């Protein structure tokens, strides 16, 4: 039964992902992306990763996509606003996509699916208690990268505040 | 999976659905009655005894009205908008513990549709998705006023979600769990969180007014500026769904307030009642107590609506970003210091 759910979810994910880049209307493509995010959250749920699924929905569907939709709705994108893209941009985009795909493929081929072992041993691998220990433990956890990520977010926040200030104030 | 569990949960979900609908229906009547009471009027009293059938009459009227579609290129999204609002408003009730447990037919029935580890985060996730119903509906209406109103509603909901999340964190630091069931159980007796987290409670209360788009934060339906708000172009039961979703989410917000800060189904002397009267009567009283708390908060929502005038938009944003968020962060810091000093 889980396999059927997986196939249905994958079909939805792939279809909406393709529709996101193929539709002409920017709002429609944003909505397709939201549906895509929801089905990815469904994939997390298939792994029984409840925290990841819920946080994915809160962050991506609930915050980022709403802000994106917001911007698109207010910007009123029309056909004539769209700048003509040069061939070089397209080649660069395709090249960078191929590089990302290469890295992902290598990662998938090398990775060891450990989840089956957890299923067999019945070990708790997804509850917030375990996740909190892994993320915030100072010695053998990911405390330092976690803090660095928050510094990165702070920097981008300061950047956004700086950008939204008036022009004459920054250009001294 | 055990088939009896599926049947049990199915029946339970249907009951919760029916109760939410009933509460939302009668909230519309209660709103008009409370408004009438506060303005020294009688209120609706023609349908049934004392106006008790008024919600049915309203529903019948909405269903029988002509469905009108505006000239919009997004007919599908126009129809989907109210559907999202309504289903999101109903989804939250899945993780709320309505009572401890009942002992029926030789088995313990847990009075909660599903007990997930991260139920508070689930509620926040569902709340954040609720903005889509308004945004999509307002945009698909192809009307500038609807779009403006949808933008207002969305920016207001996103802004207040931040303060709401921060106000919850202090509570979670005290409780050490994200499960609503455990939070309810921790508040047994009179250990209600409102006594330990009064500032967090006030911030959460203000934010839930903003999240449900109720006065004094109902700028999304500011009639003098925006005609009817995001549902200007809607008619018939589609508009009914938007209005109904507002009442359903008001009921859910009241429930969350009661569960998080006012002890949920707990009442003083519950353990004594379990020992002396048995599990079932004690828990039935618990459910009734929870519903009394919920009704009080619904009344509070209405009381505020008919007492306080609407904010101006810049005042609303200043309150959210410059007052509530720093206050919530200060509350987190104070709570952390107190926990470190006295709990370890």
Total of DSSP H or I helical runs spanning 4+ residues of chain B: 13
Distance between the termini of chain B: 42 Å
Order of helices and strands of chain B: HHHEEHHHHHHHHHH
Strand order of the largest sheet of chain B: 1-2
Number of strands of chain A: 0
Estimate nothing, just give the exact number of structural domains of chain B. Answer: 1
Overall average residue pLDDT of chain A: 83
Q: Give the helices and strands of chain A as they follow along the chain.
A: HHHHHHHH
Catalytic activity (chain B): a quinone + NADH + 5 H(+)(in) = a quinol + NAD(+) + 4 H(+)(out)
Protein name (chain B): NADH-quinone oxidoreductase subunit H
Family (chain B): Belongs to the complex I subunit 1 family.
Subunit structure (chain B): NDH-1 is composed of 14 different subunits. Subunits NuoA, H, J, K, L, M, N constitute the membrane sector of the complex.
Characterization of the model:
- The complex is a heterodimer of chains A (172) and B (344).
- Chain A has 172 residues and is an all-alpha fold.
- Chain A is built from 8 helices and no strands.
- Chain A has helices at residues 2-22, 26-46, 50-75, 87-110, 115-121, 128-136, 143-164, 167-170.
- In chain A, helix 1 (2-22) runs antiparallel to helix 2 (26-46) and helix 2 runs antiparallel to helix 3 (50-75).
- Chain A is globular.
- In chain A, 12% of the residues are buried.
- With 344 residues, chain B is an all-alpha fold.
- Chain B has helices at 3-38, 54-64, 75-91, 119-140, 144-175, 180-186, 193-196, 198-211, 223-226, 236-261, 270-277, 279-305, 313-343; strands spanning 101-104, 107-110.
- A two-stranded antiparallel ribbon of chain B has the order 1-2.
- In chain B, helix 3 (75-91) runs antiparallel to helix 4, helix 3 packs parallel to helix 10 and helix 5 runs antiparallel to helix 8.
- Chain A binds chain B through residues 27, 31, 34, 50-51, 54-55, 57-58, 61-63, 66-67, 69-70, 73-74, 127-128, and chain B through 77, 116-118, 121-122, 124-125, 127-129, 131-132, 135-136, 139, 147, 150-151, 154-155, 158, 161, 178.
- Chain A: One of its GO terms (cellular component) is plasma membrane.
């Amino acid at each position: 039964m889980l396999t059927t759910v997986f196939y249905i979810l994958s079909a939805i994910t792939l279809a909406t992902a393709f529709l996101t880049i193929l539709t002409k209307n920017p709002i429609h493509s944003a909505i397709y992306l939201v549906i895509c995010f929801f089905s990815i959250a469904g994939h997390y749920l298939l792994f029984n990763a409840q925290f990841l699924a819920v946080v994915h929905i809160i962050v991506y569907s609930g915050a980022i996509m709403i802000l994106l939709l917001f911007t698109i709705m207010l910007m009123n994108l029309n056909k004539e606003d769209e700048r003509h893209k040069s061939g070089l941009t397209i080649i660069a985009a395709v090249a960078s996509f191929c590089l990302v795909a290469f890295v992902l493929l290598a990662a998938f081929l090398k990775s060891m699916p450990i989840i089956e072992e957890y299923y067999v041993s019945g070990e708790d691998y997804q509850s917030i208690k375990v996740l909190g220990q892994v993320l915030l433990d100072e010695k053998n956890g990911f405390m330092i990268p976690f803090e660095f990520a928050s510094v990165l977010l702070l920097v981008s926040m300061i950047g956004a505040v700086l950008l939204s200030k008036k022009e004459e104030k920054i250009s001294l | 999976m055990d088939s009896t569990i599926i049947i049990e949960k199915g029946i339970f979900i249907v009951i919760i659905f029916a109760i939410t609908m009933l509460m939302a229906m009668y909230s519309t009547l209660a709103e008009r009655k409370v408004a009438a009471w506060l303005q020294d009027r009688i209120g609706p009293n023609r349908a049934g005894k004392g106006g008790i059938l008024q919600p049915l009459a309203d529903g019948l009227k909405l269903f029988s009205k002509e469905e009108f579609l505006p000239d919009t290129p997004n007919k599908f999204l126009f129809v989907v908008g109210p559907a999202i609002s309504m289903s999101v408003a109903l989804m939250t009730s899945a993780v709320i513990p309505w009572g401890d447990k009942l002992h029926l037919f030789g088995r313990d029935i847990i009075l909660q549709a599903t007990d997930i580890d991260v139920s508070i985060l689930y509620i926040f996730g569902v709340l954040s998705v609720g903005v889509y119903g308004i945004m999509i509906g307002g945009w698909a209406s192809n009307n500038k006023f609807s779009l403006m109103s949808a933008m207002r509603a969305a920016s207001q909901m996103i802004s207040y979600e931040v303060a709401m999340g921060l106000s919850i964190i202090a509570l979670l630091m005290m409780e050490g769990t994200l499960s609503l069931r455990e939070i309810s159980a921790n508040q047994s007796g009179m250990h209600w969180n409102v006594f330990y987290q009064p500032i967090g409670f006030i911030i959460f209360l203000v934010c839930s007014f903003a999240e449900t788009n109720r006065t004094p934060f109902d700028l999304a339906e500011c009639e003098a500026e925006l005609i009817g708000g995001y549902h200007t172009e809607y008619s018939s039961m589609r508009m009914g769904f938007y209005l109904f979703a507002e009442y359903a989410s008001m009921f859910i917000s009241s429930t969350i307030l009661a569960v998080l800060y006012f002890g949920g189904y707990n009442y003083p002397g519950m353990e004594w009642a379990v020992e002396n009267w048995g599990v079932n009567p004690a828990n039935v009283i618990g459910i009734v107590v929870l519903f009394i708390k919920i009704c009080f908060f619904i009344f509070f929502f209405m009381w505020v609506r008919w007492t306080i005038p609407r904010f101006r938009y810049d005042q609303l944003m200043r309150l959210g970003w410059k007052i509530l968020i720093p206050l919530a962060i200060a509350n987190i810091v104070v709570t952390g210091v107190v926990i470190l000093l006295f709990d370890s």
